[in-house]
Amino acid sequence: MTPLNAKALENLANELRIDIIEMLVEAKSGHPGGSLSAIDLVAGLWFSEMRGVESADHLAPQRDRFVLSKGHAVPALYAILARKGFIEKKELATLRKTGSRLQGHPDRVRMPIVEASTGSLGQGLSVALGLALGAQLDQSPSRVYCLMGDGEIQEGQVWEAAMAAPKFGVSNLCAIIDANNGQIDGPVSQVMPIEPLADKWRAFGWHVLEIDGHDCEQILSAYADARKQQEQGSKKPTLIIARTVKGKGVSFMEHQIGWHGVAPKAEEGTRAIDEIRKNGGQAK
Amino acid sequence: MSSGKATRQAFGESLARLGESNPQIVVLDADLAKSTKSELFAKKFPQRFFDLGIAEANMIGTAAGLAFAGKLPFLCSFGCFLTGRYDTIRLSVAYSQANVRMIGTHAGVGIGDDGHSQMGLEDIALMRALPQMGVFQPMDARETELLMDYLVNTWKGPAYIRLTRQNLPDLYPSATPFNPLKLLKLREMGQGSTRVALLGTGAGTAEAVKAAELLSGQGITASVWNVLSLKPFDEATVQTLAKECDWIVTVEDHSVIGGLASCVADAMATSGGKARLVRCGVQDTFGQSGEGEELLDLYGISGTQVASRTLAAIGSKR
């Protein structure tokens, strides 16, 4: 599959938003806010940036790997995996149902392509570091991506990993923070402030980029910049701080903490999908 | 008994040996490589050794990632520090079925001077509670070497291995086939009508042998069994012993809650046997500083204490 350009990616991401809403309505539970804020970023990886994951039939051992550390956003990942043929579209309806491999949070035993089992926040970056070290030992070109939430980085283990990655020179590691400023108890800036994010990660030795996490041009150029670090022999891992909107694309969900972990009812889902179709995800 | 070596030392030497034949082995430590003896590997294979600093949770997650990348990681720290990062072990290792070997040294009150904060006392209980987790505790240097070969060549999935700081006497009978998942009978002595089976694990096994020697002169037939694998646990042998013996005595330098005592009690509960149970180990309390041998005595784990507690239990039921 040819990597999608920014415009095609934008269109696809909005179709994926519809899949996410449909999945959550069917499941009657799940996390729309953080799935919708993350979808442009994750789709950019899977459809434009990552190599070796083009199709389920030819999964390269030296593939790029994606760790969804903010595991509650897994509907975004399942929607992508269905589009890419790793799972069947109709299987999306089994999300969170007994016996389904579409667990409420990623499960690498039931579904190896998710790479890491997550859901207890703060653990994914460490696993991604291990994957990056493994690729380095094997002199593999494999790159490793890890998406975290901004609330998630309140976990101490994240900072242990942040300290360790530059020591080992893993420029094949790219972490992304989906900075939607929302967590269950309220705005991140109130629950437990984390800024200044860029200064903190730079001080830890990371190559830091800051972008609009819904601008597909910016997303793709940030990923290209991160890859360049590795290709040009830099020793720094990259952190992309992506400023996003929780619930992006559905006006009644945007910026609303209440939509962190509540699924839309059928009627709300229909309204959301109509709006995404009409506005192409650009709700104002 | 000859004076042997610490199981951590035997571990470090085995790891350095196995590193030669298996290039997939990688080793992680959290600033305790000199104490855990992972430094023996680090000196030989610096490219495959990662010191993550004093940050155990990240070390555990990083090891999981290395395992997913096809490596065979051994991660090392004191048992209490490792198993204290329970949530990371629970999700990134156990639930993920990461092929990781977690080495927890400084088991029990036997470490002595440093006191409670450095003593692994609940680590077996914590690890046994996790599905898919193997839990092993060797009794001496030879058994540690054999276990290491098994962990590298045979065992699949996550495992926790508990090792001692202090030297332990050589007990493994030479030329005995290695069957890590079965109880190993070490001794049978005495000719009394009361039959006692003493089950030890780790440092507890040497104390069980000492206790058996004391008991065998007291009208008791005493057998000594070593428990290397606490999970999977050889329930069948315990259930047979529960029918054949009058008493089963467990000896461990670990809390009796969730350790060997609990493994044995669980097995006995469904055995239909007549045996009663004496649980020697740390009795739901904290450790403290002191000389290791003194502490083993104070906490009722030394051979003399095990023998006297066993006799007291037998006496109270006669």
Descriptive overview:
The complex is a heterodimer of chains A (284) and B (318). Chain A is α/β, with parallel strands linked by helices and 284 residues long. Helix content of chain A is 41%, strand content 12%. Chain A has 9 helices and 7 strands. In chain A, the strands form 2 sheets. In chain A, strands 1-2-3-7-6 form a 5-stranded parallel β-sheet, sandwiched between helices. In chain A, strands 4-5 form a two-stranded antiparallel ribbon. In chain A, helix 8 (216-231) links the parallel strand 6 (207-212) and strand 7. The mean pLDDT of chain A is 95. Chain B has 13 helices and 12 strands. In chain B, the strands form 2 sheets. Chain B has a 7-stranded mixed β-sheet, sandwiched between helices.
Number of helices of chain A: 9
Kindly name the structural category of chain A.
alpha/beta
CA-atom Rg of chain A in angstroms: 17 Å
What Rg of chain B, in angstroms, do the CA atoms define?
19 Å
Q: Give the oligomeric state.
A: heterodimer
Overall average residue pLDDT of chain A: 95
Unreliable stretches of chain A: none
Report the sheet with the most strands of chain B, covering strand number, pairing sense and barrel closure.
7 strands, mixed
Q: Give the total of beta strands of chain B.
A: 12
- Beta percentage of chain B is 15-25%
Per DSSP E runs of 2 or more residues, the count of β-strands of chain A stands at: 7
Query: Element order, helices and strands of chain A?
Result: HHEHHEHEEEHHEHEH
Q: Helices, strands, pairings?
A:
The complex is a heterodimer of chains A (284) and B (318).
Chain A lengths: L5 H22 L4 H18 L15 E4 L5 H10 L40 H14 L6 E6 L6 H12 L5 E7 L2 E2 L2 E2 H4 L5 H7 L3 E6 L3 H16 L6 E6 L22 H14 L5
Parallel strand pairs in A: 1-2, 2-3, 3-7, 6-7
Antiparallel strand pairs in A: 4-5
Chain B lengths: L6 H15 L3 E5 L3 H4 L2 H6 L4 E3 L4 H13 L3 E7 H5 L2 H10 L5 E5 L17 H6 L5 E3 L4 H13 L5 E4 L21 E6 L4 E7 L2 H13 L4 E7 L2 E3 L3 H10 L2 E9 L4 H10 L6 E7 L9 H7 L4 H15 L1
Parallel strand pairs in B: 1-2, 1-3, 3-4, 4-6, 5-6, 8-9, 8-11, 11-12
Antiparallel strand pairs in B: 5-10, 7-9
Helix pairs in contact in B: 1-8, 4-6, 9-13, 10-11
